[in-house]
Amino acid sequence: MNVSDVEQSIADTKNDYIRILNPDDIKILKDVMGTKGKVGGEKFQDLLFCLAILEYSNGEAWYDIHPAIKRIIE
Length: 74
Hints:
By secondary structure, the protein is of the alpha+beta class. The chain has helices at 3-20, 23-35, 42-49, 70-73; strands at residues 53-57, 61-65.
């Protein structure tokens, strides 16, 4: 695997998310980026299950968006 393979994989992942995310999702993702917490109720769970939001645990659980889609919403 070389750099162009990695870049293509990231682009493919980003494009997959572009197709499924709507403006309400983008707002929730921005809120998660800012707070690192749970926001948006049931929609948060949907985004967590589709891995647009990732859960991290360093003693206490916190959340952030998938790195491949940060460019979509910034």
